[in-house]
Design a protein that fits this description.
single chain; alpha+beta; elongated; Outer membrane efflux proteins (OEP); about 425 residues
């Protein structure tokens, strides 16, 4: 009941998050980008392949075998001496009862694995999109921050030049102001170059996305629920764990099928023959049964070992997914706390820089101290902006893992997350 209430609480958060947050690409574009991924297309083709294999398993591997023969018989003791003879036969293997049901189950399990694999491909594409998107946001934010710093230093350099011309300031201050402006201009050029690279990479990987000119600064919201609630939500929707469970189920069915194969399938046939040029006509039936040997036992033992190995891998995947989900929750919480601290520091340093500049304008401080204070304020603002993006990305990553960010749930197979 506690987990049910937690999931309901998180579901309310999902409805709020489903309205395309302003600092993310619009959901229709994001979904088009995810479903247009070549890896997702490949996973979709694999579903069709597994469906065809399932049909093959349902009909079985036994087929009718037609045999035809003709011969000439020579008998020296008869007046005729030569006879034309022929024979025709039809034979087919028969699946023993129970094997077909196992084959149908094995085919359905393969289709289930393929469907979950497509969901996993969609999820991995979502992670890639989120990472690339925030890489571009970081570079764009850094470029905007350097642009603001350059504009501030350009304004300050203009004031210094005017004061030097009036004889109110030494030429050293002009050199200091010009050097600071040149450094900021160089940093701005580098930041703009990195922004173009990140944008081009994003466009090439996700051509359906339209990059906006600017993205609003959105404060990362606090997470609802505790670590256990989010871990449970991630486990309920994790494709990797669902894939491990489906593989384990398929291995168990395969082990049962190998055990059934220790009882060999018989073959039944009918044969007609014409001998001595029609003087003799034959009609008969045949039954052949392979004698099982050690090879079939070895195949069964190997399949059982594979099933046990799959169960152990499933347990390992569950443990790892739980650890990753718990770590992602702590990362999101810590990142938000770090952003709040960085924001407070940035506001304090910005106020200090403004006071230092006013003091310098009134002749109560030096330009070097003013430039140092402005540089510290700039670094603090940039760190706060990047910390905000880190916190937002960590939160969205957790929402994505819990399937509360983009509507890709329809690609799940019903019941795939059941133990």
């Amino acid at each position: 009941m506690r987990h049910l209430l937690a999931l309901l609480t998180l579901g309310v958060s999902a409805l709020a998050a489903a309205t395309s947050p302003p600092d993310l690409p619009p959901e229709p574009q994001a979904l088009a980008a995810l479903r247009g991924s070549p890896l997702v297309d490949a996973a979709g083709e694999n579903i069709e392949a597994q469906e065809a294999r399932a049909r093959r398993l349902a009909v079985g591997t036994h087929e009718w075998t037609l045999s035809l023969g003709e011969q000439n018989r020579r008998v020296r003791t008869t007046p005729e001496g030569r006879y034309t003879e022929w024979d025709v036969g039809l034979e087919r293997g028969l699946r023993l009862p129970g094997k077909r049901d196992l084959d149908v189950q094995l085919g359905a399990a393969g289709v289930n694995v393929a469907r979950i694999s497509r969901g996993d491909a969609l999820h991995e594409a979502g992670r890639g999109l989120l990472s690339s998107w925030f890489e571009w946001l970081r570079e764009q934010t850094a470029a905007a921050q350097w642009q603001q710093q350059r504009d501030n230093l350009a304004r300050q350099a203009q004031v210094v030049r005017r004061r030097v011309e009036l004889g109110d300031a030494p030429r050293l201050e002009r050199l200091q102001a010009d050097a600071a402006l040149a450094q900021a201009s160089a940093q701005l050029a580098q930041a703009e170059g990195r922004t173009r690279v990140a944008a081009e990479r994003l466009r090439r990987h996700y051509p359906t996305l339209t990059l906006p000119g600017s993205v609003p600064e959105i404060a990362p919201a606090a997470l609802d629920g505790g670590a256990d609630d989010w871990v449970e939500a991630v486990l309920q929707h994790n494709h990797e764990l669902g894939l491990a469970r489906a593989e384990s189920a398929r291995a168990r069915i395969g082990a049962s099928r190998s055990e059934a194969e220790r009882r060999p399938d018989p073959s039944i046939g009918v044969r007609m023959a014409r001998e001595r040029s029609g003087e003799e006509r034959l009609l008969g039936v045949s039954l052949s049964i392979p004698l099982p040997g050690e090879g079939r036992r070895a195949d069964s033992d190997a399949a059982l070992a594979d099933a046990r190995a799959s169960a152990h891998r499933e347990a390992g995947v569950r443990r790892r997914v739980e650890a990753e989900a718990a770590a992602q929750y702590q990362r999101a919480v810590s990142a938000r706390a770090g952003w709040q601290s960085q924001q407070s520091a940035a506001e304090a340093l910005s106020g200090s820089a403004d006071l230092m500049e006013r003091a310098w304008q009134l002749g109560e401080g030096t330009l070097a101290d003013t430039l140092a204070a402005r540089r510290l304020a700039h670094e603090a603002r940039l760190a706060a902006q990047l910390a905000r993006l880190d916190a937002s990305e960590a939160r969205y990553r957790l929402l994505l893992d819990a399937h509360q960010l983009w509507a890709v749930d329809e690609d799940e197979h019903p019941g795939y997350d059941q133990p």
